[in-house]
Design a protein that fits this description.
alpha+beta; Aminopeptidase; 2 domains; two-stranded antiparallel sheet; 7 helices; elongated; disordered N terminus
Length: about 280
């Protein structure tokens, strides 16, 4: 089987990693012989799975994706989306039964440069790792908004001339933030100011898929913590992303109970997810 995957600045590149005998066919759980199928669009991915992480990653199949275009595949009940440069990493997001996921991860064509991280729910990721296909490197949280957002918050969109203030606040209050001003995935920033106009808390509308908004880059001035400002800006941002996309998600450090509690009060539900390297692709840690 020959697979096509798109590049922004050139014509499609052909990869023949899947041409070895039998590589594109697999006996699924039903006993039927299943063929590996490439999913061409984000709509195809949404038709194949309702998993929010895959919906999010499938933005890499859109024409306006800011990095090299991604690709996606399905085999039996497994779906894998390759999203280069998504939220700082080349991501290989997966869902489905571990046998089918393991079979698919061993067959998809992947470039060998960059920092690749496979990503799935922790339970699924560990079952796949037990089959020798991936090696776990870290576990954190993925949170999805459940139902309608809590409404009635007060914040504002920050105009571009004020982005330097956002950068300064992040450098001081959250220097390890994955999203910063200038990041191609940072679409816009929300903020809360005090009566004097000082910027106290921020959060980013970042890396959105058409049907799923995403929050990152949350930070509150150290001297003003404990006043509910992060909840205020995130609640306000959640309202607007929900109204635009119909769903909202975010990532959170599993060792940050205060942040998890904040997002839970806003209506988000926590799931444990695990990142892993892919054994078939030798890359530096």
């Amino acid at each position: 089987m020959t697979v096509l995957y798109r590049h922004k600045a050139s014509s499609p590149v052909r990869s023949d990693r899947c041409t070895r005998s039998g590589a594109d066919r697999w006996a699924g759980r039903s006993g039927r012989i299943e063929s590996m199928e490439q999913l061409e669009t984000a709509h195809d991915v949404a038709a194949a799975t309702s998993e929010p992480m895959l919906i999010w990653a499938a933005q890499a199949l859109e024409d306006d994706y800011p990095h090299e275009a991604g690709s996606a595949w399905r085999l039996d009940d497994a779906v894998v989306v390759y999203a280069p440069g998504l939220n700082r990493n080349d991501r290989l997001v997966f869902t489905g039964g571990p046998e089918a996921v393991a079979a698919l991860l061993g067959r998809v064509p992947l470039p060998r440069e960059g920092k690749l991280r496979a990503l799935g729910t922790t339970e699924s990721a560990r079952e796949v790792a037990a089959r020798g296909v991936t090696r776990e490197v870290g576990t954190f949280g993925w949170m999805d908004l459940v139902g309608e957002p809590v409404r009635g918050w007060s914040a504002e969109w920050l105009p571009k001339p004020e982005i330097d203030e956002v950068a300064a606040l992040l450098a001081s209050a959250n220097p390890s933030a994955y999203v910063v001003p200038g990041d191609p995935g940072a679409r816009r920033w929300a903020g809360v100011r005090d009566a004097s106009g000082a910027l106290l808390s921020v959060a980013a509308d970042c890396w959105p898929a058409r049907e799923l908004g995403f929050i990152g880059g949350v930070a509150t001035h150290r001297r003003h913590r404990g006043r509910g400002l992060s909840r205020q800006v995130c609640g306000w941002l959640t309202e607007r992303l929900y109204d635009e996309h119909g769903a909202v998600s975010l990532m959170v450090d599993r060792d940050n109970p205060a942040a998890i509690a904040l997002y839970t009060r806003l209506g988000f539900t926590y799931r444990s997810v695990t990142a892993a390297t892919v054994a078939a692709v030798e890359r530096p840690a």
